[in-house]
């Protein structure tokens, strides 16, 4: 009977996509395609659909690109793999909710926190200027990313605050959770 209760809970929460485990390139590609199909079924507003698809794609790709920053030996202590990630996407009545979770080197938490706090402190109409400034100043990493993802997510969600949390796992590793909301009416 527990499985029926779990299914009902997932159904009642309007879960679009839920995944916990190791991420691979093929899995990321499959998730993005599945998300696109599900959004076609759920969302009539083309503008909202496009924005949310772009935000979700950015979040999922960010997870994939940054998974290898943690030493696998550090995580095995807790029975999880360093490439393990969490993705939960739900359709609420007034907004879409996207939550991601992944391991991050503890030494990077302050840098990520500062970046997120700086973005959250900016008014929605100032995000475009912040994006252009970051684009000018950023050097692209060997992964091809320039650190613009969080700004882009905030822009596309209409300046919704990016919620986050860091939980220590070991002395050198923390678990980073990011929650993003996108209003269903734009």
Automatic annotation (TrEMBL):
Highest taxon of the lineage: Bacteria
Pfam families registered for this protein in UniProt: DUF6272
InterPro entries, sorted: DUF6272 (IPR046239)
Keyword entries, A-Z: Coiled coil
Coiled-coil regions, chain positions: 25-52
Matches recorded under NCBIfam families: SiaB_fam_kinase
Protein name (Swiss-Prot/TrEMBL): Uncharacterized protein
Organism listed in the record: Marinoscillum furvescens DSM 4134
Taxonomic lineage from the root: Bacteria, Pseudomonadati, Bacteroidota, Cytophagia, Cytophagales
